[in-house]
Amino acid sequence: xxxxxxxxxxxxxxxxxxxxxxxxxxxxxxxxxxxxxxxxxxxxxxxxxxxxxxxxxxxxxxxxxxxxxxxxxxxxxxxxxxxxxxxxxxxxxxxxxxxxxxxxxxxxxxxxxxxxxxxxxxxxxxxxxxxxxxxxxxxxxxxxxxxxxxxxxxxxxxxxxxxxxxxxxxxxxxxxxxxxxxxxxxxxxxxxxxxxxxxxxxxxxxxxxxxxxxxxxxxxxxxxxxxxxxxxxxxxxxxxxxxxxxxxxxxxxxxxxxxxxxxxxxxxxxxxxxxxxxxxxxxxxxxxxxxxxxxxxxxxxxxxxxxxxxxxxxxxxxxxxxxxxxxxxxxxxxxxxxxxxxxxxxxxxxxxxxxxxxxxxxxxxxxxxxxxxxxxxxxxxxxxxxxxxxxxxxxxxxxxxxxxxxxxxxxxxxxxxxxxxxxxxxxxxxxxxxxxxxxxxxxxxxxxxxxxxxxxxxxxxxxxxxxxxxxxxxxxxxxxxxxxxxxxxxxxxxxxxxxxxxxxxxxxxxxxxxxxxxxxxxxxxxxxxxxxxxxxxxxxxxxxxxxxxxx
Length: 551
Prior knowledge:
This protein is an alpha/beta fold. It is built from 15 helices and 33 strands.
């Protein structure tokens, strides 16, 4: 007898599960329920159609109900919302635009309800000029406003993926854009010392930033709306994009007996099983393990959702597939820059009490002598045994492939030693003989084996002047262009001859431009009996970290 499988929700997780189920079981009865019109679309591409980067709206539609039925013989029912699940009698209550309210039985159930935009309860949150961006109708509504020629000012509330992508695309359409972000920095997956690079890029491209200041209210007027922030700032706009975050769309499961996490995410095991028999869950609505910390988390990304859909289908069909946690690998375009990360950031590691070290580098994306070379700002986090905990990179070129390499080593349980040993493709237009990934490995390796001693700028700037010397080993010209307060300048090439100027009783905290000359200086000092440390990332890290966004 053929198995009846019901799938609630499409897009990445549900559609992947449906297609995989059919490939594994030609006889199964597969029904997909979708509360909206579109079962599978490229929601990551929505901001780029608004900005006309993606010209054809139809190219965002990955699968249609007709195509799914034609190729996979899947019964797709759009405008059909699941309103309740009875896990005892194995039925789902459905509110359908075509059939009304009815019940559908199942042998196996896959939950892929996704997540909806989070809109806080503040005065004016339902303003006609305020919108969210989660699906194609949302996109159409915003694009109509953008293309109407009446839009001059927009406020984007939220500085995450959607907020930054919307800000860029609106700015490219000539709109005056302000980002309001309650956190101190944009792009939460990055640490502040990396986020500031994006903040400068945003301001260099005309985007106004209001950071550390959340939204308080929206007041509609005749020709615009006024956004008031918590600090009392008032911003006028014809369009307000609320990109504050998402919440799992799991309210319909309240009385089902299916276990939910503290924020409403569906609890699953590593085979995507819920606590209810024959019920599986995938995508943005599920709670998963963090690959680095082991903690419960939720990561609403397309890649994990696709994998989870495939695994749920495998398990339903008797294959022994497992989902081995999420490491949060992601990337974002911000005007001319790409920002990418994988694993944990410093903020997470501190919160979980996980000891870590860090190496910061600013290598060129390809050979510096080949035209067009630009630097990558890179940070590697690792523990005392060399296990990789996380990596963040920002740059104009080559960021994607470098983070993907580190993400792969992290996933396979690799260490910083593995980064040094990787043999990566090299030719002057593409990389350097020592790839940026190798360089991060070398820096961390030196730190762990004692041939270097890395500290960060927090350590350097909070030093005791009576017990330390802050030493700048760059050239006098570089020193004159900017240096840390209280620093002594002795260029590295003069250091051996000028050691007598240093007090051997004091710790020498030295830095250069990006860290390389600082390492050479450390080796000279250490082998002459000085207690020395090298500030990782050098002056370039300091200059970027201490960028202050304009009000």
